[in-house]
Design a protein that fits this description.
The chain is mainly α. The chain is built from eight helices and no strands. Helix 3 runs parallel beside helix 7.
């Protein structure tokens, strides 16, 4: 079920209600009056927490886009500065992801203890929307990391085939770990000798591959946590969907009742007009009879 993001509207309502002393606060979803002023404070805290969480999610999205731009640079595979920047962005995204998981757990606890008041409904709605945004951001980040690794591995195989080298898959993975997969710098012979030396010393240069593997493991753990959160909140999501369907049915029923009322009012007007016409005609007939008699 798709959840509507109403954070902007809720922020506007909360700010206007907090600054007003005469008007009674109003619930956006159900049309109910909210108890001041503790309810306003609770809603304001929820909005601030959701804004902070979404700012972290936006940082992950921006880091993913930056990684994509850096990898599209033609000099990426021979530029160690760009490779280090990509590694730092991956590490930063993983740290931000852990913060978002903690914030989502806090929102989950709020949802459990919020009840059925307006603040509870707002908390559940914002939690569902924020969780979906986080899932999309994680999926895109994981996709970019996998594309980066696949592209490097494909380029490495192509260069190995051009140099007529024979290495095992394990040695190829170790060479990929070094973040230096360019075989052609000055001449083929010198670069071939350097590549063979790198293969013999590949045991020393496993740090980069370990970092990439650790990043993939962190992403996998984040997906597992997200799956657990989805399973835990499935009943509440179904409840929200049920009430949404009930509201849709009642709106349709109200439209039908309004249509029936309009038809009844038209019939009443016609009957009233006919009665007035009959009375007027009778009066004229009696008046004409009295005049002629």
């Amino acid at each position: 079920m798709t959840c509507k993001d109403r954070l902007t509207e809720l922020r506007r309502i909360a700010s206007s209600a907090a600054g007003s002393t005469e008007s009674e606060p109003f619930d956006v979803e159900g049309g109910e009056a909210l108890p001041p002023p503790a309810q306003h404070q609770q809603i304001q805290e929820i909005i601030i927490e959701v804004e902070r969480t979404r700012a972290w999610i936006n940082d992950i999205i921006q880091n993913t886009l930056h990684i994509r731009r850096l990898h599209s640079d033609p000099t990426y595979h021979t530029n160690s500065v760009l490779q280090e920047r990509v590694d730092s962005l991956i590490t930063a995204s993983n740290a931000i992801g852990l913060k978002v998981c903690g914030a989502l757990r806090q929102l989950e606890e709020r949802c459990k203890s919020a009840g059925s008041a307006a603040a509870g409904r707002i908390t559940r709605l914002q939690y569902a929307v924020t969780r979906r945004l986080y899932a999309d951001a994680l999926e895109d980040h994981h996709r970019v990391l996998q594309l980066l690794r696949d592209h490097q591995l494909r380029l490495l195989h192509d260069q190995i085939r051009l140099t007529n080298l024979s290495i095992t898959d394990e040695e190829c993975e170790r060479l990929l770990d070094s973040n230096n997969i360019s075989f052609f710098v000055d001449n083929v012979e010198a670069e071939t000798a350097q590549a063979r030396l790198a293969l013999r010393e590949a045991e020393v240069r496993r740090d980069d591959l370990a970092r990439v593997e650790e990043a993939l493991k962190n992403v996998r753990d984040l997906f597992l946590n997200l799956a657990h959160l989805v399973a835990a909140q499935q009943e509440q999501v179904d409840s929200v969907e049920y009430y949404a369907l009930q509201a849709t049915e009642r709106v349709e029923y109200g439209g039908q009742e309004l249509l029936k009322g309009t038809v009844s009012r038209r019939k009443a007007k016609k009957k009233k007009f006919g009665l007035i016409l009959c009375l007027t005609s009778g009066f004229l007939i009696v008046l004409l009879v009295l005049i002629f008699t």
